[in-house]
Amino acid sequence: MQALRGISFEVAQGELFGLLGPNGAGKTTTIKILTTLLLPSSGSARVLGVDPARDPSAVRRRIGHVFGGDRGLYDRLSALDNLRYFGDLYRVPVREKRQRIEELLELVGLRGRERERVETYSRGMRQRLHIARGLLHDPEVLFLDEPTIGLDPVGARELRETIAQLREQGKTVLLTTHYMYEADELCQRIAVINGGEIVASGTPAELKARVLDRTVIEIETFGVEEQTVARLRAVDGVVTVGLETREQALVLLVQSRVGVELVPTLLRELDGTHLGRVVTREPTLEDAYVELVQA
Amino acid sequence: MIRAFLSGMKVHVVMFSRNPFDLSGVVLWPILYASIAYYLLDSKDNPRLLLAASLGAAVMLMWSLVVIGSSNALENQRWLGTLELLVAAPVPFAAVIAPITVASGFVGAYALLATLAWGTLLFDVPLVIEQPLAFAFAVPACILAIGMLGLVMASTFVLYRAAFSLGIALQYPVWIATGLLVPLSVLPSFVGKIGWFLGPYWGFRAIRAAALGGAPWPDIGVSVGISLAYLVIGSVCLRAFVHVARRTGSLKLT
Amino acid sequence: MRNALRIFFVGGLTSYRALFNWISPWVYIPHTLGYPVFEILFFAYLGRFADVQSDQFFLIGNAFMAIAITGFFGMGSAIGGERRSQTLATLLASPANRLALFLGRAVPSILTGFVTAVFAFTICSLILGAHFRAHELIGLAAAGLVSSFACTSFGMCLGSLGLRGRSVSLFADMIGGSMLLLSGANVPLHRLPGSVQAVSNVLPLTHGIQAGRLLGSGASFSAAAHLLGLEALVGGVYLCVGVFMLRLLEYEGRRSAALETF
Q1: Domain membership of residue A21 as a residue range
Q2: Number of folded domains that form chain C
Q3: Kind and range of the H or E element at A251?
Q4: Would you call C38 and B162 a contact, using CB atoms and an 8 Å cutoff?
Q5: Which residue of B has its CA nearest to C25?
Q6: Tell me: the pLDDT tens digits for C199-256?
Q7: Residue A219 belongs to a domain with what CATH number?
Q8: Are residue A169 and residue A190 in the same domain, yes or no?
Q9: Residue B127 — φ and ψ, nearest 5°?
Q10: Is residue B242 very low, low, confident or very high in pLDDT (cuts 50, 70, 90)?
């Protein structure tokens, strides 16, 4: 089974680059190859000028890897013990270790709670500890694999603030996410990956420009048939039709070219379907994303 | 690398010590076997036999902890989600895994204290160590020999799906083959020959010679030597494991 | 009654098959068979060195241990397994006969235990050169069955206790280990201190092993009858306690709406 079908991108030094795509798109596979954890079956990669498949140890010393989720820390130990251990493993010079740990705890907002066992931590705190761990050896490049996954909104926001700070510090960061607003907020450049291929890349503004000539019509329904959606897609002037579940309703996101008045036609096609609100609005990055990954 | 090893030892010993059930097991099992031996050997009226039984029971537990802990070590780290981080560390992988297996053996040192105390207090086992200096070297040598054999097991058993039950199944056979409680003199001779290749055999010989009188230093030497051999074999196997895991992407559970 | 029987057989088989979902029988069986063989040999040779009892003493004692262990754990893991797959609440809330339910799940393990014990006994007899006549073997089997019953009942109590705490399997493991000493499997009872003997006498397996040793050396059934009776009695008491505890737990669970926490 092929996870990646041929992807190619470059990240400049000091850039916060986003790899955005839905689940299963190949983001994690890409990161694993770049962080020496997976051998690619073909193609080459270069991290800081070194091939991670051929020379993993040279790469490992200079990169940091942070992944989302609950695991990856020793629960029975305190945060401090975890950091000390990984510090030793990742060859942080003894003299600098203590200070570095203190600075990082401050950075991720865990100062004062470092002596508590990780098993008492919330998911947001664990994530922040992961970031601290990833930065221990002062890596030149940091890979963040879906860092805010599973976090509550407040926790996610705090984490994004921390990541933004890294950007300010001039670190090179590769971030993968399936939250488009996150990519929009944090990244200087984004590559959209879907089905193992990169379907678009550019700055957030450039990607939004792809849909600037569009209008989005949101039609709230309470269930709609497959054939109806197909008919809508076939309507002249419709570019894409996306579906989004919002609470009890199924919302149709119809993108059409600006200037084309489609609402009457659409409503006619939807005759017989129970409808709610109908709203016309300007497109967002999310709409660009939807179009790219639905292709 | 040494720093990674020592740091790892500390981490894993602490983690083990924080589980009261594991700790009580460390004390209970050797006491159990030692008691059985005391009752059976009582009629022989040879106190030194009882001391040997105490020491043997402790080393039996050391082996159990290592074989059960090691057979599962890599799988356990994978389950904890830390395996990737350990592989990605810029130190040789063996230096990361060896502390896990050796730490299990180290915890077995608690067993030594437990059985000696139990024997002395309840069964009048004489607590006389003939060569204390050699004993002080023999115990770590034994821990190392057993722990490093654990490294070999960790790296090879990971390929075997039921590694955990293999670990359990290997307790009695190794206890028998290495003469820990049952003297090799009553067993068929081929059994002892198997023991020569096993860490616990030499480690226990060293400890017993130091405690009861004999020539412990050669046995200490062989224990250390065999540990190095295990380290080399284990490193090679681990490297192979990591290579396969990188190829198939199986370092993470999901 | 028929429903109970159905629950007994079908449920039991299903859970046994579920066991093999995560471990291949080609692996499980060799390991399960290997362990008691080496345990018997370990103690038999220790016994030879100590020169206090015959090979037969240790052979019978440790073969019975194999039966005991599966008896304990069969029940315990049946109950614990249900809790892990979170079906316990559903089961206890059903009108099914509790006993049939849990016994049904435990029986396959118990049968495995019996087969394991027989296998280990046979192999070790050959290795140690111990010989038994037909009526001695029958006597051993009978004593084994009664012991199995007693240990399973005891396992039921342990298992129900397990529902209240989390680390019961470790606790059961330790009790199982202590039986090596306390049941007289390896140390003749009269050598143990009086207080310890008192404990041994209320544990399962103790009388069963003594009966087994008597019958295994050619004694008649009448000679061993009182021991078999005692073992059956011990088993019966634990069975009642176990059933009572399960009912108590169910009642408590329903009263405090805590069945989901199981």
Answers
A1: 16-204
A2: 1
A3: strand A249-257
A4: no
A5: B162
A6: 999 999 999 999 999 999 888 888 899 999 999 999 999 988 888 887 787 777 666 6
A7: 3.30.70.260
A8: yes
A9: -100, 70
A10: confident
Q: Å from C101 to nearest chain B CA?
A: 28
Report the 10 Å Cβ neighbour count for C117: 26
Q: Indicate whether B253 belongs to any domain.
A: no
State the alpha helices, DSSP H only, in B72-170.
73-80, 83-87, 93-123, 132-157, 163-169
In whole angstroms, give the CA distance from residue A67 to residue A192. Answer: 19
Inspect the interface and report whether the beta carbons of A89 and B251 lie closer than 8 Å.
no
What pLDDT is stored for residue C12 in this prediction? 58
A42 and A139 together in one domain = yes
Domain ends where: A170, A204, A238? A204
Nearest CA in chain A to B7: A85
Q: Which residues pair with A194 in a beta bridge?
A: A197
* Percentage of residues of chain C with pLDDT beyond 90: 38
Question: Could you give the angle at the alpha carbon of C150 between the alpha carbons of C67 and C221, nearest 5°?
Answer: 85
What is the rounded distance in angstroms from the CA atom of residue B80 to the CA atom of residue A139?
A: 24
* Residue A70 backbone class (left: φ over 0; alpha: ψ -120 to 50; beta: rest): alpha
Whole-angstrom distance, CA of residue A256 vs CA of residue A217: 8
pLDDT, tens digit, 9 for 90 and up, residues B10-45: 989 888 887 777 788 888 999 999 999 999 998 888
Distance in Å, alpha carbon of A185 to nearest chain B alpha carbon: 28
Chains B and A contact (Cβ–Cβ under 8 Å for 3 or more pairs): yes
* Cβ <8 Å between B89 and A72: no
Residue B112 and residue B235: Cα distance in Å, rounded? 29
Does one domain contain both A181 and A81?
yes
Side chain identity at C22, as an amino acid letter? W
For A294, other C-beta atoms within 10 Å of its C-beta total: 12
Given an 8 Å threshold on Cβ–Cβ distance, is A76 in contact with B82? no
Asked whether residue A79 is assigned to any structural domain, the reply reads yes
* Gap between the Cα atoms of A121 and A132, Å rounded: 14
Partner-chain contact B176 C42, CB within 8 Å: yes
Q: Which amino acid is at C99?
A: L
Per-residue pLDDT of B93-150, as tens digits, reads 999 999 999 998 998 888 898 899 999 999 988 889 999 999 999 999 999 999 999 9
How many residues are listed for chain B in this entry? 254
pTM of the model: 0.81
Cα gap B146→B63, rounded to integer Å: 7
Chains C and A touch (3+ CB pairs under 8 A): no
- Direct distance between the N- and C-terminal alpha carbons of chain B, in angstroms, rounded to an integer: 30
B94 Cα to chain A: minimum distance (Å) = 12
| Total structural domains within chain A | 2
Which residues lie closer than 8 Å to B79 by C-beta, 6 or more apart? B253
With 0-12 CB in 10 A as exposed, 13-18 as middle and 19+ as buried, what is B104?
buried
